[in-house]
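Work Package 4 report. The design task specified in the project plan requires that, given a folded chain encoded as structure tokens, an amino acid be chosen for each position. We show below one input record used in the internal validation round.
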């Protein structure tokens, strides 16, 4: 592959300049939408003029009890330098104080759902140190999806889905939910029902039926998961006062000092010294110790900017949010490709402040990256995916204990995603070791490993194969159902043997993250 197109590609904790065949279709994100000039004023306007709800000043008085819930630090990727959630909560605290609501009547809840709980230091990445200092550990907590005394049953929907959420949502005079919409799968009723939901509710919309590998969760108008959430949300709206604040951020991922180095080369760049010098720099950096690279990755902060904010009733504001998300995220594509290439950094929503493991790798490639579409995937049915990542077998024992047990004990016997979910989900959910570590040890819920395995497995059914290019541990790649290859070049040769020598090949250049939309979608 001596001649071709040169472009950046992320490879675990490294970055490379790779050469792609000349006939490769390159898919790039849209330029960043302009950030608002004054984020605080934008937030204040949203709160002053809520949609479908009265302003907080008309709903509350000095005797009101207030719950403020917020997304956990799993998104966006990477975490932001100036997170709007912290700005919003600062503004909310200012307004509540002006109304006369005392500090002891306010509680902050991290809506981590089945994700692990986070330390106050970790939550400060979202809240900011000022909020953490003001409220402290006695007023800030993480949700627990398993403790009956912290949950309330709102009944079942007509289709029999149990709606069980954090008790504070029902018992507070108002629950104010603050989120960031990084992609179109976020926000809406997903915020409350997943982030503050109980296991017995989440199991109704995190299933093979809802995550089937066909209906994209990036398309909430059609996604079975989002339709289930909408039905369950009606039950919450009947019994609880929820006031949602949704924000949209752009895709300006890198701070100015890193932008020139880490942004895509692009289709109009000259084949001059810029590429050569970047390639040499990345090669030199790649010899750094793996632990050092992981340390840097976990402290990297993005430069995403706030572009819009809406407040009020969920069903009224979420369509406004999606309109802006689609304007930033959706790239129209006329036709899919037979072979699709992804660069895969060691960045998963579920490895924040942690370790990227092979089950997360499979979930990132097949769940998130392949799933970044509306209308149809960018890779054809029975096409081939090439994922560039070293694929190390490494786990965080504290954060991912059920992942380790599944990897070592059960994976070989439960490769089928539907069989795996039906046979193991309840036993993993009620396993006392996993419950104890989830409740008190900053571990993911016992079923979380199975969710990633199920989701990626359902998508795996729709491709002819996934080749892991640059695989450092071939047996690890095979264990997650991937085909190891030494290099991108050899992976492309293998993919063409599988898909045909005339197969159309494409490279979705990520980051920044974006979703493809079939023409007319």
């Amino acid at each position: 592959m001596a001649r071709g197109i040169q472009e950046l590609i992320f490879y675990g904790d490294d970055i490379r300049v790779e050469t792609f065949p000349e006939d490769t279709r390159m898919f790039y994100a849209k330029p960043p939408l302009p950030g608002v000039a004054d984020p605080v004023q934008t937030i204040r306007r949203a709160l002053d003029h809520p949609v479908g709800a009265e302003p907080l000043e008309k709903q509350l008085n000095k005797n009101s009890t207030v719950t403020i819930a917020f997304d956990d630090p799993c998104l966006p990727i990477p975490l932001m330098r100036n997170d709007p959630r912290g700005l919003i909560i600062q503004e909310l605290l200012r307004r509540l104080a002006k109304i006369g609501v005392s500090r002891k009547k306010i509680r902050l809840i991290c809506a981590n759902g089945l994700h692990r709980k986070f330390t106050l230091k970790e939550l400060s990445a979202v809240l900011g140190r000022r909020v953490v200092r003001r409220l402290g550990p006695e007023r800030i907590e993480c949700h627990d999806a398993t403790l009956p005394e912290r949950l309330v049953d709102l009944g079942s929907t007509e289709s029999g889905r149990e709606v069980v959420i954090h008790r504070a949502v029902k018992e507070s005079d108002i629950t104010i939910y603050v989120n960031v919409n990084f992609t179109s799968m976020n926000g809406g009723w997903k915020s409350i029902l997943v982030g503050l939901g109980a296991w017995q509710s989440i199991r109704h919309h995190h299933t093979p039926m809802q995550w089937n590998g066909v209906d994209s969760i990036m398309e909430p108008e059609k996604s079975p998961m989002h339709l289930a959430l909408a039905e369950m949300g009606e039950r919450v709206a009947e019994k609880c006062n929820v006031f949602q604040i949704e924000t949209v951020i752009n895709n300006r991922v890198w701070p100015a000092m890193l932008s020139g180095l880490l942004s895509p080369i692009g289709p109009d760049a000259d084949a001059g010294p810029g590429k050569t010098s970047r390639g040499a720099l990345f090669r030199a950096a790649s010899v750094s110790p793996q632990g050092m690279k992981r340390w840097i990755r976990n402290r990297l902060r993005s430069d995403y900017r706030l572009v819009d904010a809406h407040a009020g009733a969920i069903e009224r504001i979420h369509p406004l949010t999606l309109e802006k998300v689609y304007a930033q995220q959706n790239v129209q594509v006329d036709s899919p490709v037979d072979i699709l290439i992804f660069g895969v950094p060691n960045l998963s929503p579920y490895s924040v402040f942690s370790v990227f493991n092979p089950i997360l790798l499979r979930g990132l490639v097949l769940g998130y990256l392949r799933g970044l579409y509306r209308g149809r995937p960018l890779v054809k049915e029975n096409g081939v995916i090439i994922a560039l990542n070293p694929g190390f077998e490494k786990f965080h024992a504290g954060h991912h204990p059920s992942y380790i047990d599944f990897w070592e004990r059960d994976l070989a016997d439960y490769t089928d995603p539907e069989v795996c979910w039906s046979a193991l989900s309840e036993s993993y959910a009620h396993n006392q070791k996993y419950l104890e570590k989830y409740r008190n040890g900053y571990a993911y819920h016992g079923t979380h490993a199975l969710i990633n395995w199920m989701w990626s497995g359902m998508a795996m059914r729709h491709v002819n194969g996934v080749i892991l290019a640059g695989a450092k541990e071939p047996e690890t790649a095979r264990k997650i159902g991937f085909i190891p290859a030494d290099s991108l070049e050899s992976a492309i040769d293998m993919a063409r043997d599988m898909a045909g020598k005339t197969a159309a090949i494409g490279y979705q250049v990520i980051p920044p993250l974006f979703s493809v939309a079939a023409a007319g979608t």
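The mean pLDDT is 95. Validation will be extended to a larger panel in the next phase.
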